[in-house]
Design brief:
The protein has about 500 residues and is α/β, with parallel strands linked by helices. Among the domains are: about 30-150, Rossmann fold, CATH 3.40.50; about 410-510, GMP Synthetase, Chain A, domain 3 (2-Layer Sandwich). Helix content is about 30%, strand content about 25%. It has helices at about 35-50, 70-80, 95-105, 110-115, 130-140, 175-190, 205-220, 230-240, 250-255, 265, 280-290, 365-370, 420-430, 460-475, 500-510; strands spanning about 25-30, 30-35, 60-65, 85, 105-110, 130, 155-160, 170-175, 195-200, 220-225, 245-250, 270-275, 295-300, 310, 320-325, 330-335, 345-355, 370-375, 385-395, 400-405, 410, 415, 430-440, 445-455, 480-485. The strands form six sheets. Strands 9, 10, 11, 12, 13, 14, 15, 16, 17, 18, 19 and 20 form a twelve-stranded mixed beta sheet that branches. A four-stranded parallel beta sheet has the order 4-3-5-6. A three-stranded mixed beta sheet has the order 23-24-25, with helices on both faces. Helix 6 (about 175-190) crosses helix 7.
Length: about 500
């Protein structure tokens, strides 16, 4: 485990300097890169990027599956003085076009098949397109590798797009310091070391997924990226690569627990980490039985502040529903409706203070002002804080417990989904006059997307055509599990659709 005083905060690309030259750092399909190899390739890719996009602070986007490009680009872009915008490879052209336009990306590097789905209207003016293999080949031939960055740690390093309960995805601005301290914090409380090997199964476009890389490299360990087709691929990878660390979200843990794990393979895992949704008591027990030697870390986070809490694995059996306490570098306060610190066992809003707090939403002052507000007077850190909107309570022993969300965000299979984005896609088909997307509790997904719609007058075959059109416009994780057709929507006293009443009505139907 990392011990002693924390290291100074450095530019993000300095993470590659922490591993021993000869140690494995990244396992790719093409072969394994040592820490020395990793440093060389990051330096060359950074040099090539700086030549392609000379404007400091320009945005460079990536849209590709896990591989050398998506693993190296967060560090290479930072070294080149650029801002990385990772795009979820599951997204489709409409969502990607929004991210490119909103970020003002100067360059998009990705899988040629994905790039081919974009038209001229999907790209901001002056945005270049390049296939990932072509970019990597050009960087490999470059002699002018860049030296480690001397950037101010407060400079912007990445913009991660996350869905909100209303509107299109918004870009969370992360500095070098945000990401460096996040890597340091996780490496510290997980007890990562140079001998550890992390299986990176989560999307690298998510903060939780990207931290798989950064915290492991901070500790000098090795990352094995995996885009699995079926959960059994995870078992095979753990065995083949001697994996010690596995991060996942609850729906994947459910699938993992349904597999037959050879005892010697299960014993390889030293730590399991969960975020993106709470573990149920039953799932905790199943994981503890299947991996009795592994430490299970239940965690809570939000992109605007990276990660907030973790539960000490020693407490997971006795307090399986707790969110735990603040991670290193985070101050977590529970604030009541009067704006003061809530009493023990009283419900309040979770407010995250400290250096992990992001710099706000990219070019969105209005939504930034809603979520990023001055820290409560009781804060040790002060400054700006993230007011999460999540309702929690703090027990007398300091452990936190989740109560619920204020907004209508749908969390399905670890994905944060905007109901409005689904509704807008449905309305854009012209097949429906009204649409409401709701999250319904689901044993495997956490929440499943249910879409309630009223058919548009004068349309025919809407029932058959709507699912097909939504498949064309929305990624798989946003697809409604069920579409409910209504002749009329319930209307509340304000004249708007009564979403709360509709949710209750739907719950009654599903339990009848």
């Amino acid at each position: 485990m990392l011990a002693g005083a924390p290291d100074p905060v450095l530019p993000l690309d300095h993470l590659v300097l922490r591993g021993r030259d000869e140690n494995d750092a990244l396992v790719l399909r093409e072969g394994t890169l040592s820490s020395k190899d990793l440093r060389t390739r990051v330096a060359r890719l950074a040099g090539w990027l700086a030549a392609q996009v000379p404007e400091r602070g320009a945005r460079v986007a990536s849209w590709a599956a896990k591989g050398e490009l998506t693993c190296l680009l967060p560090l290479a872009a930072a070294r080149a003085g650029l801002v990385h915008v990772p795009v979820n490879p599951l997204l489709k052209h409409a969502q990607v076009a929004h991210i490119l336009a909103d970020s003002g990306a100067a360059l998009l590097i990705g899988t040629p098949a994905r790039l081919a789905t974009l038209g001229e209207d999907d790209l901001p003016a002056g945005c270049g397109l390049l296939g990932e293999s072509e970019a990597l080949a050009a960087a490999a031939d470059l002699d002018a590798a860049l030296e480690p960055s001397k950037a101010d740690p407060q400079d912007l390093a990445a913009i991660l797009y996350t869905s909100g309960s209303t509107g299109r995805p918004k870009g969370v601005m992360l500095s070098h310091a945000n990401m460096w301290l996040g890597a340091q914090s996780v490496a510290q409380y997980l007890g990562l070391g140079a001998e550890d090997r992390t299986l990176a199964v989560l999307p690298l476009s998510f903060d939780y997924g990207q931290n798989q890389l950064l915290s492991t490299w901070y500790a000098g360990g090795c990352v094995v990226p995996l885009d699995y087709l079926v959960p059994r691929d995870v078992v095979k990878a753990v065995e083949r690569h001697g994996i010690t660390t596995l991060a996942a979200v609850p729906p994947l843990w459910v699938q993992i627990c349904e597999l037959d794990w050879p005892a010697e393979t299960a014993a390889r895992l030293r730590r399991l980490t969960n975020s993106g949704g709470a573990l149920t008591v039953d799932l905790v027990r199943r994981l503890r039985a299947l991996f009795p030697q592994a430490r299970l870390f239940a965690m809570y986070g939000l992109t605007e502040a990276f990660r907030s809490t973790y539960l000490d694995p020693e407490l997971v059996d006795t307090h399986p529903t707790s969110m735990g306490k603040a991670i290193p570098h985070a101050e977590i306060l529970v604030v009541d409706d009067a704006g003061v610190i809530a009493a023990d066992d009283a419900e309040g809003e979770l407010v995250h203070c400290g250096p992990l707090v992001a710099q706000g939403y990219w070019q969105d002052a209005a939504r930034t002002a809603e979520r990023f507000r001055p820290a409560p007077a009781a804060s040790v850190y002060g400054g700006m804080a993230v007011w999460s909107g999540d309702r929690v309570r703090r027990a007398a022993d300091g452990l936190l417990y989740f109560v619920g969300r204020r907004d209508a965000m749908i969390k399905s299979a670890g994905n944060r989904i905007s109901p409005q984005e689904i509704e807008e896609a449905a309305l854009a088909t012209g097949l429906v006059a009204e649409a409401v997307a709701l999250g319904v509790p689901d044993e495997r997904l956490g929440q499943a997307v249910h879409l309630v719609v009223r058919v548009a007058p004068g349309t025919s075959d809407a029932v058959a055509d709507l699912p097909r059109k939504l498949m064309q416009e929305l990624p798989n994780f946003m697809q409604p599990k069920v579409i409910h057709w209504r002749e009329a929507m319930p209307i509340g006293p304000n004249g708007k659709i009564d979403r709360t009443g509709l949710a209750s009505e739907l719950a009654a139907e599903l339990t009848a």
